[in-house]
Amino acid sequence: MATEHLSPALRAPASSRPYAKARPGYGKRTAAAQRTPRPDDFALMPECERYIAGYVDRLPDGAAMDIKSLAKSLPLYGQMAVSSALKALGVAGHLRRVRCQTGDGDQVRWVSRTYWSRTARDNEWWHAFLTTEDSEPTPVAVPVPAPAPPSAEAAPHAPATPSPRPLAPQPAAEPEPTPQPTAAAPARVPQQRPPAAAPAVPSPAYLALAQLGRTEPRLALSAADCQALEPLAAEWFARGVDATYLTRALTAGIPAQVDSPIGFVRRRLTDKLPPHVVGSPAPAAAATPGRRLLAECTECGRPGAPEALPDGLCRPCRTHAPDTASTTPTPSAERDVHALVSQLRDLTRLP
Question: Which of 110, 127, 169, 194 has the most CB atoms lying inside 10 A of its own CB?
C-alpha cells in the first residue's frame, strides 16, 4: 500500500526579471582587477546611489546600461534619479562611459560601452586602463599552413616517381646493357629550362597612369607610355599624393581634343608637380589607423579623450551646476526697505 506524503514539496523560487540585454558590442563591461563582492560594498554612498550601484554590480557583461533600461528595471527610482546616480558613481570612480570603434575594413561602426569597477578608482587609473584598452591589437587571423603533398607511402594509388631500382633485364643482344643515361635524362630536363619569372607587381604610379584612360578617354595611355611616365608620377607619390589627387590634377580642365596624350600628361606631370611638405606624415601611417576609443561625459555624452574628462565629466558639466548655497544672493540686513520702496514710488510717478 502506497503511503501518501502529507508534507508539501518546496515551491520553486519565482524567476527574477531577466536583464535587459544590449545590442552586440554595447552595454556593460567589467574593468580589470576586480575584487570579490562584499556586503559592505558601496556602504558609504547615499541610499539611491547604493541601491543602483548594487544593481549595476550584479548585471552581467553585455547588459543594457542606458538610463531608460535601468529605470525600467528599478521600480523605486525614475530616469532622473538614475541619471543623477550614474553621474555620482562616475565621479566616485566606479564607472566610465566610452565610445569604441569596432569592425574591420568598410564594416566599421562606433559602439557605446560602460566600464564598471566595483572598487572606486581615481582618474589616473581610469586613464591608464582606457589607454590600455585603446592600444589592444586587433585580432588577426592566423594563416593555416597548406597541407603537405601526400607521400608515396601515404598514397599508394598515386603515380610512382622514378626510383633507383634497376629496370627490367634487357636482352643479351642489347649493345648497351646499362640504362643509366635513359634514367638520368628526366632529372636533367628541368635544369635545362629557365625558371619562369614571377610577374612584376606594378607600382602605384603605374596603376594610376593605367587607370587614367578609364577616367578620361582623351588621356588613354599605352603600356609603353605608362612605363615612360612612371618616374614622373612616382615623384608625385613621393611627396604625399595619392592616386585620386593625381587623377584630378591631370584631368582637370583639359581641352576638347588632345592630339598627344603622352605629351599632354608629361607636361602636366612636370608643370603641376606638388610642393614637398617638410615633416608631413607618411601617407601609409594615415591610411592604417589603429583602434580608437573615446571617453564619454556621463552627464551629456560629449566624447573626448580620457584625460580630458576627469571624473567622467566634461568641463561644461563640471562647471554648469555650481553650489547653490554659495551663489544664492542673501538679502543684506542693513538694507533699508522703506527707502527702497520710496525710490520705486518716485520712479513710477508721472513727470
Answer: 127
Selection from 143, 187, 147, 142 nearest residue 163 by Cα = 187
State which H helix or E strand residue 21 sits in.
none
Distances (CA, A) of 278 to 17, 147, 240, 285: 62, 49, 11, 16
Chain centroid to Cα 29, Å, comes to: 17
- Cα distance between residue 148 and residue 193, in whole Å: 26
Where are the domains positioned within the chain?
A: 27-134, 204-253+260-271
Whole-number pLDDT of residue 193: 52
Specify whether the backbone of 279 is left (phi greater than 0), alpha (psi in -120 to 50) or beta. Answer: left
Pairing of strands 293-296, 27-30: unpaired
CA distance 177 to 171: 8
Sheet strands (E) in the chain: 27-30, 95-104, 107-116, 293-296, 303-304
The average pLDDT across 164-175 equals 52
- By percentage, how much of the chain surpasses pLDDT 70? 65
- In terms of CATH architecture, what is 27-134? Orthogonal Bundle (1.10)
The pTM (predicted TM-score) of the whole model is 0.46
Mean pLDDT of 9-20: 54
The amino acid that residue 240 corresponds to is G
Residue 273 has pLDDT above 80, yes or no: yes
User: In this structure, what are the phi and psi dihedrals at residue 103, rounded to the nearest 5 degrees?
Assistant: 110, 180
Whole-angstrom Cα distance, residue 221 to residue 260?
Answer: 10
* Residue 177 pLDDT grade (very low, low, confident, very high; cuts 50, 70, 90): low
C-alpha to C-alpha distances, 138 to 79, 103, 141, 234, nearest whole angstrom: 36, 9, 10, 32
Alpha carbons 338 and 345: distance in angstroms, whole number? 11
119 vs 131: CA distance, rounded Å:
19
For 24-73, write each residue's pLDDT tens digit: 888 999 988 888 888 888 888 899 999 999 999 999 999 999 999 999 98
172 φ, ψ (degrees, to nearest 5): -65, -25
Sheet arrangement for strand 107-116? 27-30, 107-116, 95-104, 293-296, 303-304
Torsion on CA atoms 287, 288, 294, 300, rounded to nearest 10: 30
